[in-house]
Amino acid sequence: MFLLNAIPGLIQTSLKRNVVLCRMVLTRTFSSRLVLGIETSCDDTGAAVMDETGLILAESLHSQKDVHLKTGGIIPMVAQRLHKENIARVVHEVLDKSGIGPRELSAVATTVKPGLALSLGVGLEYSLNFIQQHKTPFIPIHHMEAHALTVRLIQPLPFPFLVLLISGGHCFLAVARDIDDFLLLGQTLDEAPGDTLDKIARRLCLAKHPKCAMLSGGQAIELLAQEGDRLKFHFKSPMGQHYDCNFSFAGVRNQVAQSINKTEEAEGIQQGEILSCANDIAAAIQHTIASHIAKRTHRAILFCKAKGLLPQSNPCLVVSGGVASNTYFRKALKIVTDATNLSLLCPPPKLCTDNGVMIAWNGVEKLREGRGIMSYNDEVRYEPKAPFGTDISVQVKEANIRLPPLKLKINH
Ligand code: KG4
Ligand code: ZN
Q: Which residues are listed as membrane-spanning (predicted)?
């Protein structure tokens, strides 16, 4: 029993099935509360049923990635249609797999902010119908807070800790102080790193590359970079003169676009064909973005240390979001955490990307603390744009922290 609770989310599939069965019996005996988590903030329709200890009874995820790869990006109305087509099936699947009836749920937790309006709307409308029909309490979830706290499903990490969230839609550095208390140190001033990588991958026509056809832009760039020489192209790391923790990626993308234009001209090839040096460009862009992310994170750590925002004993940096799956970025961040004596924690890639499990887990954390729980009668709205934590980025800027030299020597 103790062992099962100590490793939630990490159990192997076959073991998991047995554990689930065994847990279902225990659930009824110990009346552990159950949460249904629902995620539809972007292009993944996810659901999970989890018990109060963090044990996943069932999970289901319908990804729209293949459709959006073909259209070259997410078209909100297409995402909305696909969520509508799949949400009932995905939710029924987790209820069926877990053997849980709607009336046995202690709460439904659903992402209500931030995200694409049309996508959030589908999850919320479905959830509100569900909770009104079954008279279930409702827990509205902040998508970025859920990403930030997923790590606590894997291991019992106490607050406070530093968290870097890097995805297709977001880029944040924050101190997590409690389940509903975050200090925002910095964020992207233009686009998110995943968005940049996706756009560069599209400009490089990597969807046509035989090795990359089914990969997201970020995955394609990571794969090609392994065979590239990053020194063949040089892109300037952004915001070198800004001594804060904000990010910028649009300028890097423009530099890359100019290099691609020049190389196409020099090689006499048309836009739409794959460049022979796509690997080298991928390696150079990956390194530039890794270096930018590492530097801002390094400054965030030094700021937290100067202000006593992290514990003296075993301070941690948690990295999550789809872009956090990138091994090269993780290695760059490990160099930073080793130099500053922090532990680096990355949830497994499956939990870094959008999923229903992280939403259910955030619901469980709130249910346990009795915070943010609403009645099925309460009015709830979705918020496409929502702040993440209390913004103290001005204080970070005022601290004017210069970084000590740190070599990012990363092997693939
Ligand atoms: O967190 P996520 O699933 O969705 C949101 O954006 O909320 O992140 C998706 C993003 C995409 O931009 C994708 O290109 C990027 O994560 N990504 C990666 C990798 N895998 C996914 N970026 C870099 N390296 C990867 N291995
Ligand atoms: Zn996300």
A: none
